[in-house]
Amino acid sequence: MTETSPHDADQPSGQPRPGVRTAWNWALALLTLPAAGAVYLLAMAGVMGLAGCTGGACADRVPNEFWFGVLVYGAPVIAVVCVAVSVVTARLRRGILVPLTGLGLLALDAAVLVTAFDF
User: Fold this and answer.
1) Deepest of 7, 19, 32, 38, by most Cβ within 10 A of its Cβ?
2) pTM for the full model?
3) 3-state SS assignment for residue 6
4) Residue 47 above 80 pLDDT?
5) Residue 97 and residue 63: Cα distance in Å, rounded?
6) pLDDT band of 13, cuts 50, 70, 90
7) What does the radius of gyration of the chain's CA atoms come to, in whole angstroms?
């Protein structure tokens, strides 16, 4: 005979409990912070990889200044906004979409940087 808690009666079978869902949401939301740091380090590695270029030899490997700024400084903004919005949405049923979207945007940012700097 298995014991059930009073909270199990409210949940349909196969659905995670709200506490588990909230914990996953916060884990993913906080994961955006080191992910943004990794994107920033990737951008700096790309810039440092161009240090040996002289003249216009590497001009085709560099994104223009505006888009480079958006890619580099947008990553921490995405992470902070993701954590801030998760304060409100963490307990909601579909609140996990906020950190998943943030992580997706950071992955897209990293992919664009890898493509732009031709790693």
Assistant:
1) 32
2) 0.79
3) coil
4) yes
5) 30
6) low
7) 20
Residue type, 47: V
Dist. CA 81–CA 91, nearest whole Å: 17
Question: What is the separation of C-alpha 75 from the centre of its chain, rounded to a whole number of angstroms?
Answer: 8
Vertex 95, ends 77 and 31: CA angle to 5°? 45
Per the CB < 8 A criterion, the answer to whether 86 and 98 are in contact is yes
Q: What residues have CB less than 8 Å from 67, skipping those under 6 apart?
A: 116
Which of 55-59, 102-106, 113-117 reaches the highest mean pLDDT?
102-106
Side chain identity at residue 28, one-letter code: L
Read off the tokens for 53.
């270029």
Contact in structure between 58 and 119 (CB atoms under 8 Å): no
